[in-house]
Amino acid sequence: MSPNSDAPGSVRSASEVNERIRSLWLRAGGSLSTQERAEYELLVVEWAAAIRGEVVTAA
After folding, report:
1. How far apart are CA 59 and CA 46, in angstroms?
2. Global pTM value
3. pLDDT tens track for 3-46
4. Is residue 21 a contact partner of residue 13, using CB atoms and an 8 Å limit?
5. Which among 57, 47, 38 is positioned nearest to 19, based on CA atoms?
């Protein structure tokens, strides 16, 4: 993952993670390198977990 990632175990909101995903795509110009693809995959998993957490909290 990129060097500016938050500490492991930190909890970010879905909107924060979504913003990181958007930023990654913008920086990459729409075509991800192998390293960027790995970062993207981790962010998507984190985003999905954040969404689940927000849904459970709202219920």
Report:
1. 20
2. 0.74
3. 445 545 558 999 999 999 999 999 999 899 999 999 999 999 99
4. no
5. 47
